[in-house]
Structures are given as structure tokens and as C-alpha cells.
Specification:
Blueprint: H1 2-27, H2 35-40, H3 64-72, H4 75-82, E1 95-103, E2 106-114, E3 119-127, E4 134-136
Length: about 140
């Protein structure tokens, strides 16, 4: 019985370490802020991806990082990020993630909570890659 409890505890520690590592990777994403500011800021992960729907490549004035920064300025997103003091929710053990992906020459930005066993989407936003205009996709 003692070995089963110990093995379970080791498995929980391993899973916890994995999510801490993922959280650290998200914090390490490039940002326009200084190193001291970015360590205290909310989690951000930028993963630009190509969509098969894009036919003509347009020169973007807004980068993926800038699109994420524009979405983070919205009041509803600020309220969502405020739910994660110290980068993690005490209630759900989840952490916030903001990812940008390319779609039809714009940026789709996904704001969600990553929990140990699933994700919970706060919202999707479309950021115009030319003007920087942000609109919810719901």
C-alpha cells in the first residue's frame, strides 16, 4: 500500500512539473517589454501558424506579438487575466494562455485557461493585420 501511495505522489509531482515547465515556456515568449516587466506580466504564448484558407500573402503591419498585446489591452481580457494572481488560479489550478495564429491574412487570437486535464476558452478575437482593429469572434 505504501508503494502505491508513493508512486501516485511521484506521478502527481511529474504532472505538476510538466505544467510548470509549460507555464515557463509561455512566459518566455518574445515580448516588447523589458525582461523585468515581462517576468511580472501575465502569461503569453504566441504560435503563428499558416492556414490552408490563405491564398494571397499580404504584408502584415501587425505581428503576432503585437496582436496578442492588442488583445491583452481589452477590458474583458484584463478581467480574465486578473483571475490568475501569480500566474495560476487557486480554484482551478489552471493558467492563462494567449495564442495567435494566422488565418486569411489576419490574426486569430485565442484566450483560454489551460488546466491539468482540459482547456476552457475565454474567447477568440480577430485582429486585422493591417489596422490592428480587434473584434471578438463570437
Amino acid at each position: 500500500m505504501h508503494f502505491k501511495i508513493r508512486n501516485f505522489a511521484l506521478a502527481v509531482a511529474f504532472v505538476s512539473a510538466y505544467f510548470v515547465q509549460q507555464f515557463t515556456i509561455c512566459l518566455a515568449a518574445p515580448d516588447s517589454k523589458s525582461k523585468s516587466e515581462s517576468s511580472s506580466s501575465s502569461t503569453k504564448s504566441v504560435k503563428p501558424t499558416k492556414s490552408s484558407k490563405s491564398t494571397t500573402k499580404v504584408e502584415r503591419k501587425i505581428s503576432a506579438e503585437q496582436a496578442v498585446a492588442l488583445v491583452k489591452k481589452r477590458s474583458d481580457v484584463k478581467k480574465f487575466l486578473a483571475l490568475f494572481p501569480n500566474g495560476k488560479s487557486k480554484k482551478t489550478q489552471g493558467f492563462p494562455v494567449i495564442e495567435a495564429e494566422e488565418l486569411d491574412n489576419n490574426w486569430n487570437v485565442h484566450v483560454y485557461e489551460q488546466m491539468p486535464d482540459h482547456t476552457a476558452t475565454m474567447n477568440w478575437f480577430e485582429v486585422d493585420a493591417q489596422t490592428g482593429a480587434v473584434k471578438p469572434m463570437n
